[in-house]
Structures are given as structure tokens and as C-alpha cells.
Amino acid sequence: xxxxxxxxxxxxxxxxxxxxxxxxxxxxxxMLLNSVATNGVSVSMxxxxxxxxxxxxxxxxxxxxxxxxxxxxxKINATPMPVLxxxxxxFLLVAFFLKGIFTFFQQYLMTDASEKILRDxxxxxxxxxxxxxxxxxxxxxTGKLISRVTYDxxxxxxxxxxxxxxxxxxxxxxxxxxxxxxxxxAAFNIDWILLILSLIVLPCMMYPIVRIGKKLRKISTETxxxxxxxxxxLFEAVSGMRIVKAFGMEDYERKKFAEENNRFxxxxxxxxxREQLLGPITEFIGILCAALVLWLGGRKVVSGVLSPGAFTxxxxxxLLLVRP
Length: 324
Fold this sequence. Notes:
- It contains 12 helices and no strands.
- By secondary structure, it is mainly α.
- The mean pLDDT is 78.
């Protein structure tokens, strides 16, 4: 019921995105290009670098692969090692130069969209305030209304843009990394047990994310309410400063504001603690899985069953899959 209500609210907020959909579409294209340039290219270069240049061996694909891929491998094998090494270095430099360009446009376009959405949202909230009755204003603190227009709209903007950016970009990252894992496994006939161990990490990571996420949602609501109270306290003191000075109430107002401000600090740190726990927990789960894969796959590399380049590319793809 709660999830359904949250989803309905989120879908209502998407109307603010529609006027700027073309900007988000362009940003999404640059996200896709960024993912391919960062992960796809860097991982694919590992195999010829490790096996052909450093190892000095021909790249052999034990499994049946498409003709275009076999043709590419044959061309790499026929290229002299110094020339291949130079080509790989140049290729990586070009890839990461393009990545920098794609990252700039991705971030700039998302910032442009988010600021336009924030502008539209504040305009609509202000229009709504102008339509409300005088009776409403006699019951509601002015400071809390100001907080709604300033602080709360920023949070909504983050939910619609930063959250949406992470969802789209990290989904692309996950897809590219998963594609690389499956491609390397298929091309080099890597044992299925390594792939199964790799995918076990996903449900293990979801559990702490869901548990902590539920608590963060509750804390976020409390944070918004407390920010409204802090703003209201500040506004009332500043607007009524003549009365405060006339009756010598400075100490009372100072104590009142300090208490509200400290409550806001505590709830903010409560939220920060839970947010910052997610990274180390999920990272440790991912590294634990990678360590198992390294132990099992490393033995096959040592025994000569598996190519060092193929296994390194497989392990890199797995580690890159952890973040998204």
C-alpha cells in the first residue's frame, strides 16, 4: 500500500519532466556512450594486452564465436606485438578522451534539466500559495511555507533528476558489464560456476539496500518536517526582533533555535550514517564474491586451462558490475 502510494506520487511528479524530455533524452544518449566508452572498451582491451602483448601468445577462442569476432581475433594475432601495443595505448587514450566529453555533456544536460524542473516546481508551489485562503495562513507557520518552497522542492528535484540519472546511468553500466561477463564466458568457455557465483552477489546486495532504504524514507520525512520547524523558528524571531529586543528574550530565542537546530543535526546524521553504511556493505559483498571467483578461476589460469587475459577481463567486468 505504501509503495503504491509512493509510486503514484512519483508518477504525478513526472509531469514536470515532460517539458524537458528532449534534454533528458540527449543526456541519456551520452550516458549510454559513456558506459560503452568506459567499461566496454577498457575491458575488451585487456585480453589482447594480457595474452598477445604481455604473454606473447596467440589469442585462442575455445568456443564457437561469430565470424566477425573470429576475424577480429585473427587480425590481432597477425599484427606485430609492438604495433598492437601502440594501437591499444592510442585506442585507450581516444576512448577516455571521448569519455570525458560524454561525461561533460551528460552532467551538463542533467543539471540543466534539474534546474529547469526546480524552477517550474517552485513556480507551481508559489502559485498554489497565492490561491490559498486567509484561514489557511492563520493556521500555518510562515517559516514552514518558506521551507516548502525552498528546501522541499530541492528534495523533490533530487528525486526526479539525480535519482533518475542514477537509475538510467547505472542500468546502462550494469547492462554493459553483464554483457561483457557473458561474452567473455561464452567466447572462452569459462566454467559456469564462476558465472553463477558472480550473479549470486545481486540478491545479496539487494537485501541491505531495501532494508536501509525503508528507514531512510522515514527519516527523510522527519528531516523535511524539522527543516520546516527550524525555518519557522528563524523567521518568527527575525520578523519579531523588535518584540524580542523589547522584552529581553534573546536568551530564550537563542535556546529555542539551538534546540531545533540540534534536532535537525541529529536526524541528518542519522540519515547520513545509514546512507554511508550502504557503500561498504555492498562493496564487501561484491569483493567477497570476486575473491571466490579469483580463487577458483586463478587455479585454472595457473594450470593453463584458462587464458590470463580472458580471466582478467571476466574479473574486471565482475568488479565493475558491483557499483551499478
